[in-house]
Write a structure and sequence with these properties.
There is one protein chain. The chain is of the alpha/beta class. The chain has one domain: Ribonuclease Z/Hydroxyacylglutathione hydrolase-like (Metallo-beta-lactamase, Chain A, 4-Layer Sandwich). The chain contains 8 helices and 12 strands. The chain has helices at 45-54, 74-77, 80-86, 98-101, 110-113, 174-188, 192-205, 223-234, and strands at residues 2-7, 10-15, 28-33, 36-40, 64-68, 90-94, 114-117, 122-126, 129-135, 145-149, 154-158, 211-214.
Length: 243
């Protein structure tokens, strides 16, 4: 567990070591504001028990009132049913994937506990505090969102900026880190046009970004490394660009 930000009643924490066996490594993030917690991309069944056990070290599990699902992949949503059973949380997910995610067994909670995010994004309000839901479609999912926390200035980017095969949690040397991102992005991101549209969205929002936190691999812990990631992504050819 690594604390990314803590100030007064606001905290952001990363869990990065709960994947095992043949699973792709994945990060789980928790944002706490006041008495409420928000869990981002909670993961699969193998992660669920361990994360639930460690959650009281950050916030009582019963205080998880919000669950954010950036897209539909099993490493993000497979354990959703367990969290909805164990908490009074509301889950937020892209509208186009809502009916598909019910295959993970959340039918009984669908109407009362799941909120579908419109393509334009929006806000999640926790204990009176607003987090920004930013459209990131086709990065890599057709319906995909990122989450921005204004107080910590962390941008949670799901699979964008993901790295595979690293044995560290924080990027210290960006240039040497590229090798762990390149293959994934070229294969999974369908086109550089989607990245360009997302970068344009960020510019229009004029976000103040101190940290970029992907769902896989190391995070970009400061303004310099975050800026380098954005610059690298802006020049990347991927997916259809390479066919």
């Amino acid at each position: 567990m690594r604390t990314l930000f803590e100030q007064e009643r606001h905290k952001c924490v990363m869990f990065s070591d709960m994947s095992s066996g043949e699973m792709v490594q994945a990060n789980q993030f928790v944002v706490v504001h006041g008495d409420e917690g928000l869990l981002l991309d909670p993961g699969g069944h193998k992660v669920y028990t361990q994360l639930l056990a460690e959650m009281p070290g950050v916030v009582p599990a019963g205080n998880i009132r919000h669950i954010f699902l950036s897209h539909q992949d099993p490493d993000i949503v497979a354990a959703l049913n367990g969290w909805l059973l164990m908490t009074d949380a509301t889950a937020y997910m892209p509208a186009i994937w809502a009916r598909f995610v019910t295959h993970f067994g959340i039918d009984q909670h669908f109407v009362t506990k799941v909120r579908q995010i419109d393509d334009t994004g929006g806000k999640i309000v926790m204990d009176g505090y607003e987090l920004l839901v930013i459209p990131a479609h086709y990065l890599h999912s057709a319906g995909n969102f990122h989450l921005y926390d204004p107080q910590s200035k962390i941008l949670f980017t799901g699979d964008l900026g993901a790295s595979l095969g690293v044995d560290y949690e924080v990027v210290d040397d960006f240039d040497s880190h590229i090798q762990y991102m390149e293959t994934f992005h070229k294969r999974f991101i369908p086109t550089g046009k989607a990245i360009a549209h997302w970068l344009d969205t960020l510019n229009k929002l004029e976000l103040d970004i101190d940290i970029i936190a992907p769902q896989h691999g190391a995070i970009f812990p400061d303004r310099d490394s975050a800026a380098k990631l954005l610059q690298w992504l802006g020049g990347l050819e991927c997916g259809l660009d390479l066919l």
